[in-house]
């Protein structure tokens, strides 16, 4: 019951209940039944920034703590599109390039869910206290935009499956590799090119239908004229 109380408080953002539970002896590091998820994961997933801040200030939770699937609080926040929580975690030294058991980074999750603003923040973040970040050469605080998961899928591969090219173009502008190959040998093709390919592939079929309907229409017109001619000659 104590475990459920802490987890439920973090899910619903009830800071007072969370504080009372911890003061009463509940362990904020207690793992839940769902993939070994911690209260901090739920607070970040549901966007309860005050609860997340409280848990971290206790000093008992690692900001990069993982559940059984290897997901961290930053994974949860990016998948849910919680930009304010993402900013909070990143500024408090959350690892932006940490991967889960499938080899996916938080950027994979943000791109996969289509959270444009979250992706934009991750790919443009620079730590002002880091000299290398200010020179755009840092490999510690800057996200690895070409990180590939266990299947060789990069965030750009995911963005290439969208109907629009907005996310794809954002990643390319910030250095995503358009020649990256997954385990199936596929490169991330721009949605704009995919649309053009689709149009070119469908064009013969569309024109065939147009010719078919045009032929049917012409036949109907000819038949109507023949009927009118016959009726006219009968009247005479």
UniProtKB/TrEMBL annotation:
Entry keyword set: ANK repeat, Membrane, Repeat, Transmembrane, Transmembrane helix
Ranges occupied by ANK repeats: 35-61, 69-101, 102-123, 151-183
Residue ranges crossing the lipid bilayer per the database entry: 198-218
InterPro entries on file: Ankyrin_rpt, Ankyrin_rpt-contain_sf
A Pfam family this chain is assigned to: Ank_2
Superkingdom assignment: Eukaryota
The protein's name in its UniProt record: Uncharacterized protein
Biological source species: Chara braunii
């Amino acid at each position: 019951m104590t475990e459920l109380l802490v987890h439920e408080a973090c899910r619903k953002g009830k800071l007072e209940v969370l504080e009372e539970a911890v003061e009463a002896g509940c362990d904020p590091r207690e793992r839940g039944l769902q993939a070994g998820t911690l209260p901090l994961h739920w607070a970040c997933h549901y966007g309860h920034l005050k609860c997340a801040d409280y848990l971290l200030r206790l000093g008992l939770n690692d900001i990069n703590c993982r559940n059984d699937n290897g997901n961290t609080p930053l994974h949860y926040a990016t998948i849910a599109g919680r930009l304010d929580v993402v900013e909070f975690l990143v500024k408090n030294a959350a690892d932006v390039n940490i991967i889960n058991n499938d080899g996916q980074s938080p950027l994979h999750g943000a791109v996969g869910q289509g959270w444009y603003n979250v992706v934009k923040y991750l790919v443009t973040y620079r730590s002002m206290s880091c000299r290398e970040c200010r020179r755009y050469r840092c490999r510690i605080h800057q996200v690895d935009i070409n990180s590939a998961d266990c299947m060789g899928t990069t965030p750009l591969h995911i963005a290439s499956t969208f109907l629009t090219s907005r996310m794809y173009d954002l990643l390319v502008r910030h250095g995503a590799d358009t020649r990256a190959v997954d385990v199936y040998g596929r490169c991330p093709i721009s949605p704009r090119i995919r649309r053009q390919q689709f149009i070119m592939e469908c064009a013969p079929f569309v024109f065939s239908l147009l010719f078919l309907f045009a032929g049917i229409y012409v036949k109907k017109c000819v038949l109507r004229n023949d009927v009118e001619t016959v009726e006219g000659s009968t009247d005479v």
